[in-house]
Model the fold of this input.
Amino acid sequence: MQCVVHFPAQWIDASKFEAALRNSCAPHSAGTFEVNFEFPTNCRVMVDAAIRLLSLVNQLASTTRRVRLDFEEGVSGTMGYLNRMGFFDQLAPEVEVLPARPLYSAAEIHRGGNTALVEIARINKDARDEELPTRLTDAVMRSCGGRPDASELEGAAWTIFAELIDNIFAHSRTRLDGYAALQVYSGGNRLSVAVSDSGVGIMDTLRPTLKTEFPRLVGLSDTDLLVEVFRQGLSRHGSDRGCGLKGSAAKAIKFEANLDVRLPNQRVLLTPARGTYRPNTAYCYEGLALIWGTHIAFTFGLGA
Amino acid sequence: MNEGVQVLPLREFMKRDEGWGRDQGREVYQHLLRFVEDSPQTMIFKVSMKGVQRLDISFASETVVELARRYRGAKGFCLVDLTDRDLIENLDAAAEKKGQPILVWRGRSADLIGPEPSGGAREAFQFAMGRPQSRAAEFAQARKGMSIANASMKFKQLWEQGFLLRRESVADTGGVEFVYHRIG
Done:
């Protein structure tokens, strides 16, 4: 069966990305052998959607499905933007790109030159890049370094990158690469930080250990459990671990950041309330199209 | 306890001036452990953060906090040369999660990171922090209505939870008495 994911001619954030997936047949479903992603003129893919798309496309390619990305506008449109981000450098070679794969990587040419954009960084356990959290943080500072709270933002960004990326090394259990990316939007007022892996989702590693490690939490829904992961810090390794995600959230909360967590079939949106993330302000979307792994995005509203 | 105090310069055990992640932390921990084991006479290690630019919570948890927890009750670990707010926050988050209190010394005053002493033991902790060493009898004497047995219980609890160190000594009466020491 052929599956078509058609994106609308507008800005595609993580929510629009989900809507397009929902309107298609599920790309990962057993009968699907070919998946086409269509990007019409004026379709603009934002960074949080871009790395989820990249993860999904590479997952499909790894399962020997034929995958095609069709950019109506060619390099003058969103394809050019994705190219600057390094999207095509990370795209599995067997994925077909229409009208054609870019001849050169704009990310390599522009590397470090664009203050509002950073290349998508690859996260691979066997080729650990020790500079990665610092490079990503430096990119944040190129855009936000003039802010009065720049030093606090710098510390928060570094810790968030360090913890989220290390979490992928520690938990995702996959040979597929993970990705990290960030973008500063609208004159430095909004910062989006996204980290994505194609491994086993966080619930699938945590749930089986609840009975022994956190028996009090066995009855919690996935949404409530996820809130506790970021609020208390839970880990399948026991009660003295799990401080990474909790610590990242604590840093992000200081900047009133919204948190978006995409799991294999669910998406949970957390908004801060009274200095923490709470179950009663969390929104959960269930029954989504399968995407392997855990995909986390913080959006900082940085104000003027 | 001055003769048993030693500075442990964390940066010298790290490859870079940033400590990132559990794996890197565990590697550094092995070197820290060897350093501690090679210093059997040392009771208190002042972990110097000089030259350390950044630490994430996972790295802090696997190094300094793990060391303090492992030797809880036997050797003490405190932090010095630490003023960076992010470093303090991340060390605090790691210490809190592992339930391991650690003192951060600035000159002659100290702040506590990680868990705090419980309500009942707080006063005893403050008393012990005010002097290099304390005995239960001294605390009982200084607080009206406090029995020696009660004071002794509070100090023991603080020692078990990693807030204080203690040494056995011979009391004036000839029996065994514990002398409690602040860490740092």
